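Worked Example 4.2. Consider the chain below.
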Amino acid sequence: QVQLVESGGGLVQPGGSLRLSCATSVSSFSFYAVLWYRQALGKQREWVASILGGGTTMYADSVKGRFTISRDDAKKTGYLQMNSLKPEDTAVYYCKWNSNWGQGTQVTVSS
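Applying the procedure from the previous section yields the following structure tokens:
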């Protein structure tokens, strides 16, 4: 069973920043894409961003220009840097790697 450990969520004011991390110990980490999803209360889970094994990145329109996805294959960790946060970014954020999901981390944007 692959374990993905997420961290970095919390409460932040509008306009603030957070960096989420998604760590694993699996040696094949670099072979697969890392994806981030989010699920707001009462809504369906939605895709946020992806980074492929070669480093190509893709973003949902709602976060483009504000969020940056990255990965450190040596540390077997994926990241989601979130800047200029808005109240509508409030959700539980999940990472996904090779069909495995993290446990989720709560991000709340509120004044």
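The chain has a mean pLDDT of 96. The chain has no helices and eleven strands. Compare this with Example 4.1 before moving on.
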